[in-house]
Amino acid sequence: MEKRVYSFAPGPAVLPLPVIEEVQRDMLCLPGAGASILEISHRSKTFSRIIDQTEANLRKLLSIPDNYRVLFMQGGAFLQFAMVAMNLLRGSGKPADYIVTGTWSTKAIKEAKTQGTANVAWDGKPDNFKRFPKQNDLNLDADPAYVYMCSNETIQGVQYQTEPATGGAPLICDSSSDILCRPMPIEKFGLVFACAQKNAGPAGVTIVIVRDDLLQRSADDLPSLLSYKTVAENKSLLNTPPTLAIYVVKLVTDWLLGEIGGLEKMAEINRHKAKLLYDVIDASDGFYQGHAELDSRSIMNVPFRLSNTDLDAPFLAQSAERDLCDLKGHRSVGGCRASIYNAMPVEGVQLLADFMREFREKNK
Ligand SMILES: *Cc1c(COP(=O)(O)O)cnc(C)c1O
Predict the structure, then answer these.
(1) Whole-model pTM over 0.85
(2) Would residue 255 show up in a list of annotated catalytic residues for this protein?
(3) Which of 123, 198, 229, 250 is catalytic?
(4) What architecture (CATH level 2) is domain 262-363?
(5) 240-267: pLDDT as tens digits
(6) Contact 142, 121 (CB under 8 A)
(7) Is there a cis peptide before residue 12, judged by omega within 30 degrees of 0?
(8) Which residues form the pocket of ligand 1, taking CB atoms under 6 Å from any ligand atom?
(9) Which of 54, 181, 228, 336 places its Cα 20 to 30 Å from the Cα of 315?
(10) Ligand 1 centroid vs 308 CA: distance in angstroms?
(11) Where are the domains of the chain?
(12) Whose CA is nearest to atom 12 of ligand 1?
């Protein structure tokens, strides 16, 4: 077997090793099914059990209230940018408010504007997207169709700490890069969506958690696959769902419930991993510079710069020699970024922290 490295890739990203091993074991024959997950009908009993169990696991992990539906969709988080607006903004006669905290919420508002009026309730761009706004920074409409936020800006490494108050309007959240990293009060949101390939599984499936009453806002003239209402009525089986991806999300959520022991535990581990890196950055006398302000720092994505940019290339080359891979920052932010999702083991982060300290000693 080729050796596995520590992948700090932003997504598709590292998966838990026990999950990959189980996928490998099941790939010839899913127990009791006589065939692999790739070869069975999405209408089979075996797959029905898998999709039901995946939903049950998500409900348990996130304490999803009974009046919320869990949908498994395709088109990535990117399609949700448009779908949210198609279903909840178009025809509402109201504007929507967007909290723009980085690259992903910027893309989301652009898509929403194809469907209706989308206002900027706060714009982090003049500040180079370094923080999540405080409540009194927000300029909210008196009666918006919804308020939109991204809980973790994957590129800028900015994560919210307290969900904004919306005065009763549904709060919509793109949780693509931090779903399942800690407990989340679903009841405070109208709709939460997350593509799986950052923190919940492989590429190909997007999880949507939506409050029942919002389904009634989907107009009847929407194409079926673009209507939350129709997708929910058909239990995400209107057409062939991404069966393999859903199966892997089941295994990831089994791992969270079993080996990890739930999201409180996962959050503790994630906070510990993030602190290992932020401590090195903070003790480096400016050799390393974090991107986000302290109280907005993400525990999932840690973007940082080397104050001497001539050292970027040797940093990336030497870290890769130690199997610490995919640390290059996004082209829009530059520098480096360590994505340390749930599945990144503490050892991997510890090795990176040690390497960063040594590299500074040699090059400061
Ligand atoms: C990756 C990501 C997206 C885009 O996801 P796709 O599945 O590629 O469409 C959207 N939002 C956030 C926060 C992301 O991290």
Answers:
(1) yes
(2) no
(3) 198
(4) Alpha-Beta Complex (3.90)
(5) 999 999 999 999 999 999 999 999 999 9
(6) no
(7) yes
(8) 11, 76-78, 104, 150, 154, 174, 176-177, 195, 198
(9) 181
(10) 30
(11) 17-260, 262-363
(12) 176
